[in-house]
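## tool: complex_structure
## caller: assistant
## args:
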Amino acid sequence: MIVRDYNEAVNSRRRIDSDGWHSVRLLLKDDGMGFSFHITTIHEGAELEMQYANHLESVYCISGEGDIEDCATGEIHQIRPGVIYALDKHDRHILRARKEMQMACVFNPPVTGREVHDETGAYPLEAEPV
Amino acid sequence: MIVRDYNEAVNSRRRIDSDGWHSVRLLLKDDGMGFSFHITTIHEGAELEMQYANHLESVYCISGEGDIEDCATGEIHQIRPGVIYALDKHDRHILRARKEMQMACVFNPPVTGREVHDETGAYPLEAEPV
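## result:
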């Protein structure tokens, strides 16, 4: 059994910071669960265009307020606590936070923790540290 | 892109009720994500002994307070918002809620939504409706 605490992990190497967001990776590939689990904070006012070519991701809103635009259709979905979106088609999307949002994110395949978002906003599959 | 809202799903067939807990399945096997995602509420005072022989599960505490006992070691871990536990060894465990707990649960392989907990507390793999 693995037990971890966000409140400790947020001050550890499990936290990564980027423009408009930071993320705490509570479960990674090495944990052997077959998925990774991250608590990601989208900063107030952030607008992030993203597409994960190599991963499926679901995102559940714990707190905050914003919206997500599906770039394929132009449709905009409101995000508030209790809303989940799942990028089942590697959907390109734009995420906007009107108020800081805390999100529970699941990635399949699991993130290794060594990826960086590349120029398309994607995580490369099985990236190795360089 | 799939978008769902817990606040609607909680009044739908996505909700299942059992002794001491209820669960809302926001993503199931049919969604094709390779995992399922549930928001599960453990009722105040509940004490649940469980073991999933056929699934790996991670559980992140969004709200509430309780503890989890690892039956293999007797160790008891406190649960409060931000704590995650992952049953990476199909661990038999006892979950106790001192205050009602809301948990974000991920199952691999994904739950189909047709399982019932059997007499060992496990979900059978690929159960079909009877």
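## assistant note: The longest strand of chain B covers residues 93-108. Chain B has one domain: 6-108. Handing back to user.
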